[in-house]
Design a protein that fits this description.
Blueprint lengths: L5 E6 L2 E6 L10 H16 L5 E6 L10 H10 L1 H7 L32 E5 L3 E2 L1 H8 L2 E5 L3 E3 L13 H9 L1 H10 L3 E2 H7 L4 E3 L4 H15 L2 H14 L4 H15 L3 H11 L10
Parallel strand pairs: 2-3, 3-4, 4-6, 5-7, 6-9
Antiparallel strand pairs: 1-2, 7-8
Length: 278
């Protein structure tokens, strides 16, 4: 069955998932949620995919939850919406049974994936759209991107674990500012805060993101990406000693894997790597 509200394509070992409601600035719906989860699961299963990019069609990344949904909640109550839209949660199939329970929630499942997830924020990322971007591993923004938590201006709170995630990226004081004021910030300020990893001119944005994603997919060990991603996300719950001990075990395992041998060989032989992820 064709997708209704997303696009999915794979090229050069990069899977691109595009939120596709450009006339609504890609406002989030239950249909979109289900399609994104299905696309992510497909990318996770596909051995030809090594990197996942999430972006939006048209002028926006994601303007948050569709206002028709919020209006229904405000007028008819949450129970009515929950009865009509049963959206499952839980870890994405293929993400691995060892994923932390923290990363098996409704929107927090990107860290449970074994592959890097890059948010290519081409326009406004607001409310729920910002939540989704926070759970991606990297956030690249165009200079046309804008960011807002939005919640306090709707009579809402820091949703879906944002109170935990946002301070880890921008610091406690900046997180309070963004959540209290719900003000709109531009890409330059997002970069200064650490919310965006890089900012690129809009006219070159998609190409720059693609270049980075292809670089990871082509020249970096998939096994290394997989292990490093798990280390960093798990380390948020660990002491330094625990993270140190795990790194010792992972290093010994890496020295016995095929990608380590290929990493040395391609450097010595001055050729492009041929990593297998094993």
């Amino acid at each position: 069955m064709p997708n209704q509200e997303t696009l999915y394509e794979v090229a050069k070992r990069v899977a691109t998932i595009t939120l596709n409601r450009p006339d609504k600035l890609n406002a989030w719906t239950a249909v979109m949620e289900q399609e994104v989860r299905a696309a992510v699961a497909e990318a996770e299963r596909d051995e030809n995919v090594r990197v996942i990019v999430l972006t939006g069609a048209g002028r926006g990344f994601c303007a948050g939850a569709d206002m028709s949904l919020l209006s229904t909640v405000a007028t008819k109550g949450l129970d009515a919406v929950q009865r009509s839209q049963a959206v499952r949660s839980g870890v994405v199939s293929g993400a691995g049974g060892g994923a932390r329970a923290d990363f098996q929630k409704k929107y927090s499942y990107f860290p449970a994936l074994s592959k890097p997830v890059i948010a290519a924020i081409n326009g406004p990322a607001v409310g729920l759209g910002l939540v989704i971007a926070l759970y991606c591993d990297l956030r690249f923004a165009s200079d046309a991107a804008r960011f807002s938590t939005a919640f306090a201006r709707r009579g809402l709170i820091a949703e879906y674990g944002m109170a935990w995630m946002l301070p880890r990226l921008v610091g406690h004081a900046n997180a309070l500012d963004l959540l209290f004021s719900a003000r709109l910030i531009d890409a330059a300020e997002a970069f200064r805060m650490g919310l965006a990893n890089q900012v690129y001119p809009q006219e070159a944005f998609q190409e720059k993101v693609r270049e980075y994603a292809v670089e990871l997919a082509s020249n970096v060990s998939p096994r290394s990406l997989r292990v490093i991603k798990r280390q960093l996300h798990d380390a948020m719950f660990q002491t330094l000693g625990e993270a140190f001990d795990i790194s010792e075990r992972e290093m010994l395992a890496s020295l016995q894997c095929e990608d380590f041998k290929e990493g040395v060989a391609h450097f010595v032989e001055k050729r492009a790597p041929v990593f297998t992820g094993k």
